[in-house]
Specification:
Length: about 120
C-alpha cells in the first residue's frame, strides 16, 4: 500500500529524475554567458542594440518608437518595463516570444540587466 500512494510514487519519480538530471549535468558542460561582461549603461549598451536590431521596424510614427531620440521614453513610459519583476517586463517577454530571433541571447540578457538595475537613462 505504501508504495502505491500518489505521494510516494511522486517522490520516487522525483528521486529518479534528480538522479538522471545530475548524471546529464556531468555529461554536458553548460556554459552560461558572463552576466556583467559588456553591459555598461543604457546609452552604451542598450541604445546600440535598439539601433542595430530594432529601429528598422520601429522607426517612429505611431508604432513603438525605438529611434535614438525616443527609445528611452517610449519604453519606460509605455508600460514595457517592470523594474519590480524584470522578467515579466513586456519588453523582455516580447524578446522571449514572437521577437525571439530579432536579437541575440546575450543582448536579451543585457536588456534584462538594464531593467534589473532600475531601467535608468544613463
Ligand atoms: C521585422 C520587424 C521588427 C523588428 C526587427 C523588431 N520588431 Fe518589435 N514589433 C514589430 C511589429 C510588427 C510589432 C507589432 C506587432 C506585435 O506586437 O508583434 C512589434 C511590437 C513590438 C513590441 C510590443 C509593442 C506593443 O505595444 O505591444 C515591443 C516591446 C517590441 N516590438 C520591441 C522590439 C525590440 C526591443 C526589438 C529589437 C530587439 C524589435 N521590437 C524588433 C516588428 C519588429
Amino acid at each position: 500500500m505504501y508504495f502505491k500512494s500518489p505521494v510516494s510514487i511522486a517522490l520516487i519519480v522525483i528521486a529518479i529524475s534528480t538522479f538522471i538530471g545530475i548524471q546529464s549535468c556531468e555529461q554536458h558542460v553548460i556554459t552560461f554567458p558572463e552576466p556583467e561582461v559588456g553591459y555598461e549603461s543604457f546609452s552604451k549598451t542598450i541604445l546600440p542594440i535598439l539601433n542595430n536590431d530594432c529601429a528598422i521596424c520601429h522607426p517612429g510614427a505611431n508604432e513603438l518608437d525605438l529611434s535614438q531620440e525616443k527609445a528611452y521614453t517610449a519604453l519606460t513610459s509605455g508600460g514595457y518595463i517592470d523594474t519590480e519583476n524584470p522578467e515579466s517586463s513586456p519588453l523582455y517577454e516580447k524578446l522571449q516570444g514572437s521577437h525571439d530571433t530579432y536579437t541575440s541571447n546575450a543582448n536579451k540578457e543585457f536588456i534584462l540587466e538594464w531593467i534589473k538595475e532600475g531601467a535608468k537613462n544613463d
